[in-house]
Amino acid sequence: MTFYIGVDIGGTNIKVGVVDEAGRIVGESSCPTGADRPQEVVLKDILRTAEDAVAASGVPRRDIHAAGVGSPGAVDSETGTVLYNYNLGWRDFAIAPMMSEALDLPVRLENDANAAALGEVVAGSAKGASSAMVITLGTGVGSGFVIDGNIWTGYNSAACEFGHMVIAYGGRPCTCGRRGCFEAYASATGLIAMTKEAIAAHPNSALGELAHREGCVSGHTPFDAAEAGDPVAQRVVDEYIGYLACGLVNLINGLQPEVISIGGGIGKQGERLLAPLRLKVAEETFGERTEGEKMTRLVSCTLGYKAGLIGAAMAARR
Ligand SMILES: [Zn+2]
């Protein structure tokens, strides 16, 4: 049997797994990221956690053929270097060659969203699809595109930042410096902003009362209040789904993936989100619909946090 080590670097925790050819995790371990420490110290923790995961799996060391790392930020997969990551404070961190030397294994570095996309394609919601996009709706919008089992990284390995495709010229400001990005509307942050604006305009609505009772506004709030029949909340949900559909239709018109998997915090809404989203997307996708026509399938991600480490391990197969 052949196994791979997968490492998923997050802002809070680093998760490591030993993964088989089919994308099943057979042993796991994790450690805090402690990103404020020097890069070399973080690397030592990753190596120790990898050894813990191997021990937990019971897989003989000789059966592990390679390791893959998914890191947030801008990465160069050719040189195995994290170019920069503002959240972790990393710059020019040659993590793959350093790990390769310490583990005596080939090590492949990928962007974390791309790795998660590959995980969903190998072992999750898009299993078997010839082309699939994974869009995660969290604090930001993460995205990856896998074609015939390969992550599409573009000419300078920074492709697939679909969150920074403008859907409203001159619209809401985005963290990247532009205005009107998909992320500014379709992220949980965007939905929460729209919800707060609706509450400010209609403080006595059921939506406003729910937010007041819960003491906060989350991505669930408008969906919960809309399901309970509040028209103000329903307008927020409809508006949000409209923006989300707008971005997805741009991607479908341009690239026609077989599957788009929706994940992240808002993705947890499942069919409450997907059922109306599919209608809106079908309505707006370019061309006339005919009976039995092949359409991009919209589904929920199924691997959760495990997608990143499974995908990192699967990227190491190359
Ligand atoms: Zn942007």
Count of spatially separate domains: 2
Q: Mean pLDDT across all residues, rounded?
A: 95
Structural class: alpha/beta
Question: Which stretches are low in confidence, meaning pLDDT under 50 for 5 or more residues running?
Answer: none
What string, H for helix and E for strand, traces the elements in order?
EEEHEEEEHEHEEEHHHHHEHHEH
Describe the structure.
- This protein is an alpha/beta fold.
- The protein has 2 domains: 3-124 and 305-315, 2-Layer Sandwich (Nucleotidyltransferase, domain 5); 131-300, Nucleotidyltransferase, domain 5, CATH 3.30.420.
- Helices cover 41% and strands 23% of the residues.
- It has 11 helices and 13 strands.
- The chain has helices at residues 39-57, 95-103, 112-123, 182-186, 188-201, 206-214, 220-227, 231-255, 264-267, 271-284, 306-315, and strands at 3-9, 13-20, 25-32, 64-71, 74-76, 81-85, 90-93, 107-111, 131-137, 141-147, 150-151, 259-263, 297-300.
- The strands form 3 sheets. It has a 5-stranded mixed sheet with strand order 3-2-1-4-8, with helices on both faces. A 5-stranded mixed sheet has the order 11-10-9-12-13, sandwiched between helices.
- A hairpin with a 3-residue loop joins strand 1 and strand 2.
- Helix 5 runs antiparallel to helix 8 (231-255), helix 6 packs across helix 7 (220-227) and helix 7 packs across helix 8.
- It is globular and about 60 Å long.
- It binds zinc ion (ZN).
- Zinc ion binds next to loops.
- Residues 164, 174, 176, 178, 181, 183 line the site of zinc ion.
